[in-house]
Specification:
Strand content: under 5%
Radius of gyration: 25 Å
Biased composition (Basic and acidic residues): 22-36
Number of helices: 2
Order of helices and strands: HH
Largest sheet: none
Region (Disordered): 1-36
Shape: rod-shaped
Length: 74
């Protein structure tokens, strides 16, 4: 949420200054544009880890149930 507020504040300052905004504003926008793909990559990585963890958990749970059923037979 904070970056959104900062972007709006920077845009407002650029509008006050005129057409192109200051060098600082462009640097800020470039920085944000570099961070967005990195954030998506980190989100995708987190989803992969979460999905893999769930698969492992499901396997271990099913293995536990099978072991329990085999113990009941004996």
């Amino acid at each position: 949420m904070l970056p959104t507020v900062m972007i709006m504040d920077q845009t407002s300052e650029a509008a006050k200054e005129g057409s192109g905004g200051s060098h600082r504003d462009r640097g800020f926008r470039d920085s944000v544009q570099r961070e967005i793909p990195q954030d998506w990559a980190e989100q995708e990585y987190t989803e992969i880890v979460t999905s893999s963890t769930k698969k492992i958990s499901d396997f271990l749970s099913s293995f536990n149930v099978l072991s329990f059923l085999q113990d009941l037979k004996h």
